[in-house]
Amino acid sequence: MRTDLYTFVHKAQRFHLFQLSADLGKADITNSAEIDKLVHRLRYLIEHIKDHAHNENTYIHPLYKSLGITAEKFDKDHKTLETEIENLEQILKSNQLDNLYSYYTRFLATYLLHLEEEEAAQRDILWAYYDDKSLFAVFHRFKAERPPHLAQQDFEFMLPALNNKELIQIFIGMKSSAPAHVFQNACLRASQILSEKKWTQIAHSITSVSN
Fold first, then answer.
1. pLDDT reading at 211 higher than 60
2. d(CA 123, CA 137)
3. Could you tell me if residue 153 is inside a domain?
4. What is the pLDDT of residue 71?
């Protein structure tokens, strides 16, 4: 299995973006409490996406630039997405709630295409020109430089989006490499975020593999 710089976080983004799209589409815009919660979720996603773009610019795009290909297009795509986000923020600022869903879905369509293009570029370019040791070094640098509170947010953001196999992979890796208290705290948060049935399955699998 190749070192993957995109899939988990992109999968989590799709999960939260689709959920918000469905909730915005059926929202009662006359219900201020409901709208406030949705706007809070949207603002959180906007900040997450801005941070994610910054991380890609810092850690992943240099890999493309060293090859002299592709990075310019991704940089341009990020500029386009910044414009779409600014449009969304203007809708929120001016309280144009009747237009929020249509602007959000337009942004969503643009962003989903961008995610697919990045994943294709990883498959066709990064995996062709870089070995796993080089790619893992980039991922390790990101993790080492990530502030702990943001790493915690990243972890909680991804948890509900991943399947059992992916979660087991993460927790087994964490158990073998992270301090015991970090692993225990991660298990606690997972038990609070995931359904009881799913976490029971994950915990059983972690124990079985460890033994």
1. no
2. 18
3. no
4. 64
pLDDT of residue 74: 76
User: Which sign does the torsion angle of CA 44, 118, 101, 195 carry?
Assistant: negative
pTM of the model: 0.92
What angle separates helix 148-158 from helix 180-193, to the nearest 10 degrees?
40
Q: What is the pLDDT of residue 210?
A: 54
Cα separation of 146 and 6, whole Å? 16
Report yes or no on 2 lying in a domain: no
Whether 26 and 89 map to the same domain: the answer is yes
Does pLDDT of 36 surpass 90? yes
In one letter, which amino acid is 110? T
Q: Which helix (H) or strand (E) holds 184?
A: helix 180-193
Residue 190 lies in a domain: yes
Task: Name, in order, each residue with C-beta under 8 angstroms of 45's C-beta and a sequence gap of 6 or more.
Answer: 13, 16, 17, 20
Q: Which amino acid is at 109?
A: A
The pair of structure tokens assigned to 108 is 């969503």
Domain extent for 170: 163-211
Q: Please check whether residues 167 and 141 belong to one and the same domain.
A: no
> Domain count of the chain?
2
| Residues in CB range of 9: below 8 A, 6 or more apart | 52, 154, 157, 158
What are 18's two structure tokens?
């689709």
Average confidence (pLDDT) over 6-11? 96
